[in-house]
Each structure stands twice: as structure tokens, then as C-alpha cells.
Write a structure and sequence with these properties.
Layout lengths: L4 E5 L5 H10 L4 E5 L4 H7 L3 E4 L25 E4 L1 H9 L3 E3 L18 E9 L14 E8 L2 E4 L5 E6 L6 E4 L4 E4 L11 H12 L8 H15 L4 E5 L4 H14 L3 E7 L7 H11 L4 E5 L1 H8 L5 H20 L5 E5 L4 H7 L25 E3 L7 H10 L4 H4 L19 H21 L7 E15 L2 E14 L7 E2 L4 H14 L3 E7 L12
Parallel strand pairs: 1-2, 1-3, 3-4, 4-11, 12-13, 12-15, 13-14, 15-16, 18-20
Antiparallel strand pairs: 5-8, 6-7, 6-9, 9-10, 10-11, 17-18, 18-19
Helix pairs in contact: 5-6, 5-11, 6-11, 8-9, 13-14
Length: 525
């Protein structure tokens, strides 16, 4: 696939959303570190560049910057948030930061205000980047900045303003340079796609070359070239990611793919049986490795979330290795790694924050000496689901809610024991049943129960209880990068709460998590 667009990443958690939106618009793009060499830009043969946002300030020493040559390359360039500030600073404009008065009790009028979250931008000129808009039109956008452009570089004009940004967007049409202080890639910016579309097609004259059918064809061809002979193993979980990855590889190499499903004892009620039935129905060669006791023994006494994840990952690899060693002539391992897995585990240029380790990211032990096949590594969950449907995978698998690799261990806060897992499974099954009954399963990204290591006083049958608490986590999302909490109708919440307390021994309280991502994550650990 030819790279028409390069996204230079400066550490924003939203960088991947730019890529996804660009691909939704039909253009293949790649992300590279923002401080890359110009040779890398040239090697891509890209026809346009986008500079992402990021947590740095151009006013600080050592802030990441692009290669100087891009400004004379003749390529159309769009700067987003930090990327816009970079463009202004590099080309002779002025960027200033939000400041407080000397007393510290009020904002400095000269410096304006910071903008984080929803904001309104007024379009001053409806040309160039805003050709699809009307002059003086107000648009809802998503802001996330403290610094802002206060003086334009020579040759630039202001396209839009906001209450906190005298220059909310600018452009230099002679050089094809454009910048927006807000984030057009997030769904909170109502017409963000129109802005990106204008840059891609109206300004950069790119061609539509990206769709799921084309991806599948190229992925199969690449896998066949990568593994012309020999066997391949796949750690199958039954989730959307690993299932789509396995079916894609199976399409490429057939029976040479050997899938191993590790039952770590941390699955939901009846899940192991259902997964095996589903995978065999897809024609996959699957072997079940029941290892629940081994995992629980290793987790005994552990309460630290990151240590629990790492322990589960280590034991999984041990079990997987034991099973893989029974298969001869194995050279490759299939993983269902996605873009969000990578961005939450690895910083592209050292500026984005590592949120948590991920079970698919971090590498295998050297003893395995297997090369990785990660056909979905550049994709988001919604894209993977589209590919799954193209591959003929049934909707009940494709629409399955995401389930963490470490399983219920990251929803069982505190020590992971069989008695606590039993409580969590019972409560979670009630949540799943009521969500399915309500018809909201396809509307929600995830709905699940979390067992808290918190005991509280209650009363049951005129007797005092001192038992644990279940938290309900119910969210909507498109890709897992951001998420909004979802308020179920009162009657459904009441039914879930009543059933959990009545049917789950050891639980006397149910609470509702109403946190968005960010600042929270979807999973509690």
C-alpha cells in the first residue's frame, strides 16, 4: 500500500484517531515519530503531512520538532494543536502560554485562558481549509491546550478564533500550510471530518485508496509471503481481535495455522465452552489448554494491578510455550494486536505516557524464537469488526464486547481468589443478561461488573452484613481510545442492582461508575 499521508506524532493520545479518521475518509496513512529524519519522510513518498498534537510546549528547551526540510519540501502540511504551534514557532510567529496574575488568583487578561474540552470557534474566512463552511459560522470543537499562537508568521492569515485563542486556525495558501488549535479528529468536533476531508482532497489532492476489502487482499498476500512454508501458532482468546486475526491467517495458510486457547481460569461464566464451540465452527484448528489452577496459584496474595497483569502474561507465555512445543516446524506466532494496544503501551517518541502494560505488547521470551504476525496492528476496533464481517465471521462474535487479556483479574480489585471470582462471575452474568434483554448490547462498547475490595455495612433479613461491593462500568466508544459513561434507564439499573444483591452471596452494595476516558480508563486496573 502506498503511503499518501504521513502523520508526524508528537505524543498525543489522539494521534491514532487522526489516522483512523483519515482512513475512514479513504486514504492510507502511516504514523512516524515527529522528530524523525527528513530522509524518512522522503522514503515514504508521502504527498502530504499532518503534525499531531502533544503534551510538550514549543517554548521549552528540547521540545520535539520536525526536520527543518519539511518547510521547503513543497508538501501540504496541517498542524493540529501542538502541531499548529510548531508551525507558527518554526516559521517566525509567536506562541505564548497561559499565565496567572502576580497574585495568582486570576487569569492574566493579556494571556487569555486555557481551553480544555468543548469550545466554540467562529469562522472568520470561509476559504482554504474552511471552504465547506460559512463566514461567521460557529462550530463546536474540542480543545486541549495551554499555549496558543498570538502572532502569525509572515504570509499567514487567521481563519478562526475562539474565546481563548485569538488564532484558533490559520493558513498560508501560497505554501499550503494550515493549522488548527482544536482537534478535528475527535467526535466532539462536530464537523471535524469536513476539515480533514478538505485538507486531504481539496488541498492535497490525494486519492481514495483504502477500504477493508483491499486491506484483506493485501494482508493475505503479505502473510503468504511471510510464511511460505512451515507452521504458525496463534494464542486464541475468542475475542474479536484474536478471532479476526486467526481467520485472516487461516485464509492465507489454511491448516498450517494451529490455534491454542488458554483457559486461565479468569474467564466469565461458561466462556471457555462457548469460545471452543465458536472457533471450531469457523473451521479453525484449536486446542484447549485448561490452566486455571496454575494461574491462581501464581496470583496468590498479589494485589498490585501491574504485577497481576505481568504475572498473568508470564504464566500465559509459559503455558503457551508448553503447548506450542508439541507442534513441529513452527516459525511464527499470530497476535491480535491493535493500534490502541500499542499506543497505551509504547510511547512513539517518549512524550506520551504509558498507561498500562498490555498482554499483546512487550515481546515473547527469547526461548520461543518466533517471528510475529500481527495483521491488525495498524487498525482500530471498528475497522477490525468490518474486516471480520467481510471474512464471514458471525455477528455474535464480531459484536462481542471487548474483554481484557488478563480476564477478570483486572476487574477483581485486590487479591484474585476463586471465591472472589465466583462473586464477580455471578454479578457479571447478571449484567450481561439484563443488557441483552434490554436490546442495548450493540449500542454499548462495554458493560460489566467490577468487584471492589471494599466492605460496607448492610442489612439483610433484619441481620447486619459486612460484605463487598460491585461497581457497574457501562460505556460507549468507537475505538476504546476515548469513552463516555452511559446511563441505563432507571428500571434496568434497579433490576441489575436488585438481582446482584439478591443472587450474589457476599455482595450487599452496588455502585455506578460515571467516569469518562480520559481521565479514567475503561478497565479499573
Amino acid at each position: 500500500m502506498n503511503t499518501q499521508l504521513l502523520i508526524l506524532d508528537y505524543g498525543s493520545q489522539y494521534t491514532q484517531l487522526i489516522a483512523r479518521t483519515v482512513r475512514e475518509l479513504g486514504v492510507y496513512c502511516e504514523i512516524i515519530p515527529g522528530n524523525c529524519s527528513y530522509e524518512k519522510v522522503l522514503a515514504s513518498k508521502a504527498k502530504a503531512l499532518i503534525l499531531s498534537g502533544g503534551p510538550s510546549s514549543v517554548r521549552t528547551e528540547g521540545a520535539p520538532r520536525p526536520p527543518k526540510e519539511i518547510w521547503t519540501s513543497g508538501l501540504p502540511i496541517l498542524g493540529v494543536c501542538y502541531g499548529m504551534q510548531l508551525m507558527a514557532d518554526e516559521l517566525g510567529g509567536k506562541v505564548e502560554g497561559w499565565m496567572r496574575s502576580a497574585s495568582g488568583d486570576q487569569e492574566s487578561k493579556e494571556q487569555g485562558i486555557r481551553e480544555f474540552g468543548p469550545a466554540e470557534v467562529n469562522i472568520k474566512k470561509n476559504n482554504g481549509l474552511f471552504s465547506k463552511f460559512h463566514a461567521n459560522e460557529n462550530i463546536d470543537v474540542w480543545m486541549s491546550h495551554g499555549d496558543k499562537v498570538t502572532e502569525l508568521p509572515v504570509g499567514f492569515i487567521t481563519l478562526a478564533t475562539s474565546s481563548g485563542s485569538p488564532v484558533a486556525a490559520f493558513q498560508n495558501t501560497d505554501k499550503n500550510f494550515y493549522g488548527v488549535q482544536f482537534h478535528p479528529e475527535v467526535h466532539h468536533t462536530k464537523r471535524g471530518k469536513d476539515i480533514l476531508s478538505q485538507f486531504l482532497f481539496g488541498i492535497s489532492k490525494l486519492e481514495k485508496d483504502w477500504d477493508m476489502k483491499g486491506f484483506i487482499k493485501e494482508a493475505i498476500s503479505n502473510i503468504q509471503a511471510q510464511v511460505p512454508t512451515g507452521n504458525v501458532v496463534c494464542g486464541l482468546s475468542g475475542g474479536v481481535d484474536s478471532t479476526v486475526a486467526a481467520v485472516l491467517v487461516h485464509k492465507a495458510i489454511g491448516s498450517r495455522l494451529h490455534c491454542i486457547f488458554v483457559d486461565n481460569g479468569l474467564l466469565r461464566e461458561g466462556e471457555a465452552k462457548q469460545v471452543m464451540e465458536d472457533m471450531l465452527a469457523l473451521g479453525l484448528n484449536v486446542k484447549l489448554a485448561s490452566s486455571g489452577e496454575r494461574f491462581l496459584t501464581e496470583l496468590e496474595g498479589e494485589t498490585d494491578p501491574e504485577k497481576k497483569r505481568k504475572t498473568i502474561g508470564r504464566v500465559f507465555i509459559d503455558v503457551f510455550e508448553d503447548e506450542a512445543e508439541t507442534i513441529t516446524d513452527v516459525s511464527h506466532l499470530v497476535q491480535g494486536t491493535l493500534y490502541p494496544d500499542v499506543i497505551e503501551s509504547v510511547s512513539v517518541i517518549g512524550n506520551s505516557v504509558t498507561i498500562k502494560s498490555h498482554h499483546n505488547v512487550g515481546g515473547l521470551k527469547d526461548i520461543m524464537k518466533l517471528s510475529l504476525i500481527e495483521p491488525l496492528r495498524e487498525l482500530f476496533k471498528d475497522e477490525v469488526r468490518l474486516i471480520g464481517l467481510e471474512l464471514g465471521i458471525s455477528k455474535h462474535i464480531i459484536n462481542r464486547q471487548p474483554f481484557p487479556g488478563p480476564g477478570l483479574a483486572v476487574r477483581c480489585l485486590g487479591e484474585v481468589r476463586e471465591d472472589r471470582l465466583k462473586k464477580l462471575r455471578t454479578a457479571d452474568l447478571i449484567v450481561q443478561q439484563e443488557i441483552m434483554k434490554s436490546g442495548l448490547n450493540d449500542t454499548l462498547w462495554q458493560a460489566f461488573a467490577v468487584l471492589l475490595p471494599v466492605q460496607s455495612v448492610g442489612v439483610m433479613g433484619d441481620g447486619r452484613t459486612y460484605e463487598e461491593c460491585i461497581a457497574l462500568r457501562i460505556v460507549t466508544s468507537r475505538d476504546g481510545m476515548t469513552a463516555d459513561w452511559y446511563l441505563l434507564p432507571e428500571e434496568i439499573l434497579r433490576r441489575i442492582s436488585t438481582r446482584i444483591v439478591n443472587e450474589t452471596k457476599g455482595i450487599n452494595r452496588v455502585v455506578l461508575d460515571i467516569s469518562t476516558k480520559p481521565p479514567s480508563t475503561i478497565e479499573w486496573e
